[in-house]
Amino acid sequence: KGRDTSFTHTVQQSVLYDSILERHERDFGDLGNNVEEIQRQRRLARWKETYTPLSFKVMSVKHPLRRRMIAFMEWKWFDRFILITIAANCAFMASDDPENQDPNNSHAVLLSNMTLVFQVVFTLELVTKMIAMGLIIGESTYLRDGWNCLDCFIVITGLLEYLPASGTDGSSAILRTFRLLRPLRALRAVGRFKDLRMLVELLISCIPMLANVFGLISFIFFVFGILGVQLWQGYLRGRCYSIEDGLIDYEIRDEVCSTDGMGFHVCREGFECLRNYHNPFFDVVTFDDIGGAMIIIFQVMIQEDWTTLMYFIWDAFTIWTWPYFILLNGLGPMFAIQLF
């Protein structure tokens, strides 16, 4: 239905078909009625256009090994099997029990063996694609694609886990660091889905467009950080010390006191507030330098237990510091972060 059956169209199709046959006879010889040979030659012609002429400067698309690797890579179940392997690998990593330190436990043995199987599968995939596509020299080679570079990095770091350890603490720490990269294997699935891959690339391409937003937030951090350092440098170190023996009041040693009496927490009789102790939360919460002040500002902006930080300043300085924190709440989660 809807097909053009006119005489002119029939002649045009006949001429087109004859030209195709003539081109094939010129390129591949007289193939007669050998359909399989025609399909094979067409496949080789397509491979010449798709893949680099030489893989590792040795193997052309007609090389038996490379031809088999390309056919295997283009097999529809190749990517499906890799996706299933990635999903199974993620499931086994999620089932790992960090409290189980017995290497002879049945679950630990199974997990170790399956990790080795997954690593072998991913390594074979890497080798297959490198032989089929070429390494890096030429267009459309394996390492010319950013997602393939990520896959290569993950596979190589996985292989480094199986290097023999020398028994020193340094080598053991390095091997543990490589094991921390195992969750990156889940990212390999992103490159297999075109829509998801396109979305991630779109988000990455939008980062330069957010430069003005980053600049605004950095300006807010810097200005409020300098203001906090100028106002409250050293105030969070105040603790109550005994006037008689100079010892700290251990009952309230975690509470910040006011050195000038304007804050909420004033030391009881017989004690004096001195700035000789460390800052709260193991010296993390501090306005002694711009770095510590920016950490506090970030915590206030994300509204993560920010009232505790404000109460520390109330105890040490005065309640009239509340506009600083309220303004940060307005400029942070309600304004600057919403620009993203």
Structural descriptors:
340 residues, two-stranded antiparallel ribbon, 2 strands, 2% strand
Protein architecture, described:
With 340 residues, the protein is mainly alpha-helical. The chain has 13 helices and two strands. It has helices at residues 7-28, 35-50, 64-74, 76-94, 106-133, 146-160, 169-179, 194-205, 211-232, 280-283, 290-301, 306-316, 322-336; strands at 239-242, 271-274. Strands 1-2 form a two-stranded antiparallel ribbon. Helix 5 crosses helix 6 (146-160), helix 9 packs across helix 11 and helix 9 runs antiparallel to helix 13. It is elongated. 17% of the residues are buried. The model is unreliable at 1-5 (pLDDT under 50).
